[in-house]
Amino acid sequence: MRTIFRHPGRATLEFSPQERAERLAATTPRQRTEALLFLSGYAPATLDTILDAVEPLDETADPDAGDDAHPVCAVCGQPVGIFLLLGLDWRHYRGREPGGPFEIYDPGHDPVLTWQPAESLAAAS
C-alpha cells in the first residue's frame, strides 16, 4: 500500500486528481492552513487565483445567482475564464456553451470578475 504523504518539502506530480483529493481529505485543519501559508509564499499568484475561485458569491450583487453561477466581466457582462495553457489570468472569451469552441479576445479592458446565474448567461449569448 502506498502512503498518501510524502517526505516534507518534496514536491511531486505523481498523483492523480482523485489521489490528491484523498490526500487533502486526510489532512488536518492545521495542515491545510500550513499548506496554504506555504503556497502563499511559494506561488502567490496561484494562491490568489485559488482564493478567487472559491470565494463566496457576493449576495448583494445578485442574491439569486446560486451555485450555477458563471464568471463574467462586471464592466461589459461578457464571459471570462482562466485558460491554463495561457496562464492563470482571467480572460474574456466567446463561443458556444457548453464546451466551445472558444475564442479568447481583448475587449480593451481588464476583466473585472463577478458572477451571473447560468440562465442569464445563456440568454446573453
Protein described:
The protein has 125 residues and is α+β, with helices and mostly antiparallel strands. It folds into 2 domains: 1-42, no CATH class; 69-124, no CATH class. Helix content is 33%, strand content 18%. It has helices spanning 17-25, 29-42, 44-54, 118-124, and strands at 69-73, 80-82, 90-95, 102-104, 113-117. It has a 3-stranded antiparallel sheet, with no helix packed on it. The longest helix has 14 residues, at 29-42.
List keywords for this structure.
33% helix, disordered C terminus, alpha+beta, elongated, three-stranded antiparallel beta sheet
Structural topology:
Layout: H1 17-25, H2 29-42, H3 44-54, E1 69-73, E2 80-82, E3 90-95, E4 102-104, E5 113-117, H4 118-124
Antiparallel strand pairs: 1-5, 2-3, 3-4
Helix pairs in contact: 2-3
Low-pLDDT residue intervals, each spanning 5 or more residues: 121-125
As laid out across the biggest beta sheet, the strand order is 2-3-4
Termini separation: 50 Å
Number of helices: 4
Give the H and E element order.
Answer: HHHEEEEEH
Provide a quick synopsis of the model.
The chain has helices at residues 17-25, 29-42, 44-54, 118-124; strands spanning 69-73, 80-82, 90-95, 102-104, 113-117. The chain has 125 residues and is an alpha+beta fold.
